[in-house]
Amino acid sequence: MLNFSSDIKYLKGVGEARAKLFRRLGVDNIGSLVRLFPRAYEDWSRVSAILDAVPGEQCCIKAMVCSPVTHALIRKGMTIYKTQATDGENIMKITIFNNRFAAEKLEEGEEYLFFGRIQQNGYSREMLNPQIEKATTGERIRPIYPQTMSLSSRMIEGCVRRALDSIEELPPDVLSTDIKNRYALCDYRAALEKIHFPKTEADIMTARRRLSFEELYVLQTGMMLLRGRNRKQAGCQINKDCSEEFFSLLPFSPTGAQKRAVKEAIEDMKKPQPMNRLLQGDVGSGKTAVAAAVAHTCAANSFQCAIMAPTEILAAQHYRTFCKLLESTDLRVELLVGSTPAKEKKRIKESLISGETDLVIGTHALIQKDVQFKNLGLVVTDEQHRFGVGQRSALGGKGLNPHTLVMSATPIPRTLALIIYGDLDISILDELPAGRQKIETFAIDSDIRQRAYGYVRKHLDEGRQGYIICPLVEESDVSELRAAEEVAEKLRKEDFKGYTVGLLHGKMKAAEKDSVMREFAAGNIQLLVSTTVVEVGVDVPNSVIMVIENAERFGLSQLHQLRGRVGRGKHKSTCILISDAKGKTAQHRLKTMCKTTNGFEIADEDLKLRGPGDFFGARQHGLPEMKIADLSSDMELLKQAQRAAKETLDLDPALRSEKNAPLKKAVLDLYETVGPQGLN
Predict the structure, then answer these.
(1) Which comes out higher in pLDDT, residue 572 or 673?
(2) Distances in Å between the alpha carbon of 545 and those of 186, 408, 444, 573, 628?
(3) Residue 175, pLDDT above cutoff 70
(4) Is CATH 2.40.50.140 the classification given to domain 46-139?
(5) Which pLDDT band holds residue 312 (cuts at 50, 70, 90)?
(6) Phi and psi at residue 363, to the nearest 5°
(7) Is 80 helix (H, G, I), strand (E, B) or coil?
(8) Contact 559, 599 (CB under 8 A)
(9) First CA to last CA across the chain, in angstroms?
């Protein structure tokens, strides 16, 4: 008998050659085969009469072949086979292209199930290239699997059937009897049987719910363990709330949402457990001011603060903003990035150890081993999804369970936020500061690029500034994308001759990038040609127009972030998307951008279009791949799984009990690809 770890080649009907094909699908043993879930289903259980079938829609017809199969070679390499079948009342034509095997299976006088789309040709009905099964196989719902080369869905279906029949004993169930009873979930074997060979649609729902719950439960348990969050640990408890004092320093009135977020964070910091809070907000909603308010209160309570940003440009911008907001206080703010001169780095590191520096802002440079703090009380990570799991926890490890504030300028659908930041409390900035202008967005094709450039020149002539965004830095042999370097040179010589045109891209040295951004912020550069390096955080209120080349190449959330670089001041702003793409998905994406400026709506659309694996880029967010759970629609199930994971860890924080051994193994297996730090 076989078990879950048995090599796939030992399953009857597989062998070495077919095993290689299975491995292309990520299936190397019996366990991974039965966890290769159907991507869709065909309903062969609802048999239709020939006359009742709706032309153009998939249907299943039970009919008897009533004429001999004929064939004709219509051109070299193309043979068509024809016959007729009757359901006892009407006749339909059957036409098969280039499939001798299927045609030869048909015998006159035998009854078959024909699955496909029926066509109406005058008074007659015809089915082209139907799937065919003998009527004796039964009318049922059939699974459709991912396929590769000569390994068809029907072959996979047969192998799964033999595998389930061959497995005498399944591995221990990850879900305890208590959890299954509490959340009304079926057993594992029943779920596998129903997901692969359902008798009804209800079977599919029952199985999918059970398997999705298990996947989300394992995922959430792992995320909680990875974060190593323990609410019983003593944090850096503060005593006084200095937010009103900070608000009085601001040259503007904070929004109600900003005040609410600051209050929530400070109330957390007053508790004996460390704060773990996610601050989400749309482009330009004022997250930096919230972080500054929380840092100000923390420093006023004699604790140090550290803010980590993903790029030197953003870190430098935060540094300038914090210095300006806190200039009338006696708090000392420093900037520590990779390009900081060695002598300056040494001075800053010494001031952190002595406690002279209250607030340090930096990049990955902050998590180097020789960076130490006297009394680190608050860690703020900006654009946290850009940091790996290890980096996210390394900074917090430099203090004694400091408070954590995670900022995301990329609106994340709440489902994905719950997955990635599972047990963080969430604050949402759902108001924009007064005076922010709505950004008008237009999608055009390249034929009218010159008109768009004329519109850009009009704004530059009025003293405003703008961006032209290009996806690549250098021309590739296989790409038609306009390279930023070539675009900048061409624009300087032709369309924007006489204007100051700057260039910014990811391959420039940090000092060069910073110099360009300083010149742009000062107004010395009128038009900035850039790649997505300006996607996050860059804030130049005088820039009011943006042109994005090859807009179809960007995800919705990335387009939204890019667009957010304009519309940050008092002037009306415009974003022009240039794309010649005609595909449905690309067109839908561009229409969504033109229709709404709400980042959360856009993020939800992006999640539906691209899935969680691509939402941030698999290498960035470190989220294991989901095999069956649908993160865009399984919200209620996600909440239940999260609750179950928390209950489990409350009773067994390290999963040491024998009862939770299967769960621990499942967590380790799931996180194997992203590094199981903190799971053992």
Answers:
(1) 572
(2) 56, 24, 15, 6, 42
(3) yes
(4) yes
(5) confident
(6) -110, -150
(7) strand
(8) no
(9) 32
Q: What CATH number labels 439-597?
A: 3.40.50.300
The pair of structure tokens assigned to 2 is 């076989």
Give the separation between CA 214 and CA 71, rounded to whole angstroms: 52
Amino acid at 72: A
Mean pLDDT of the chain: 86
Please return the burial class of 573, using the count of CB atoms within 10 Å of its CB with bins 0-12, 13-18 and 19+. Answer: buried
pLDDT at 476: 46
For the segment 587-613, the average pLDDT, to the nearest whole number, is 78
Q: Is the pLDDT of residue 626 over 90?
A: no
Helices 584-595 and 556-563 sit at what angle, rounded to 10 degrees? Answer: 30
Residue type, 189: R
Looking at residue 611, what is its pLDDT? 56
User: Domain extents for the chain?
Assistant: 46-139, 243-429, 439-597
Most confident range (mean pLDDT) of 45-59, 481-495, 588-602, 607-621 is: 45-59
Q: Is the pLDDT of residue 615 over 90?
A: no
Listed residue (45, 135, 133, 61) closest to 93, CA to CA: 61
Q: Sign of dihedral through CA atoms 125, 128, 131, 133?
A: positive
pLDDT value of residue 413: 65
Does residue 197 carry a pLDDT above 80?
Answer: yes
Average pLDDT over residues 565-588: 88
Asked if the model's pLDDT at residue 499 lies above 80, the reply is yes
Contact 174, 214 (CB under 8 A): yes
What letter does residue 106 receive in the DSSP assignment? -
Question: What are the C-alpha distances in Å from 403 to residues 319, 321, 333, 369, 400?
Answer: 20, 22, 19, 20, 9
Cβ neighbours for 330, distance < 8 A, ≥ 6 positions apart:
none
- 426 pairs with which residues across the strands? 278
Burial label for 34, CB within 10 Å (0-12, 13-18, 19+), is buried
Single out the residue of 215, 214, 133, 198 nearest to residue 160, CA to CA: 198
* HSE-CB for 139 with a 13 A CA cutoff: 15
Do the domains 243-429 and 46-139 match in fold?
no
Q: Tell me the mean pLDDT in the region 115-132.
A: 92
What is residue 524's predicted lDDT score, i.e. its pLDDT? 95
Measured CA to CA, the distance from residue 153 to residue 40 in angstroms comes to 11
Report the DSSP beta bridge partners of residue 501: 527
In this structure, are residues 215 and 612 in contact, taking their beta carbons and an 8 Å threshold? no
> Three-state SS across 147-172?
CECCECHHHHHHHHHHHHHHECCCCC
Structure tokens at 537: 């955080």
The verdict on domain 243-429 having CATH code 2.40.40.10 is: no
CA distance 33 to 4: 9
pLDDT for res 236: 87
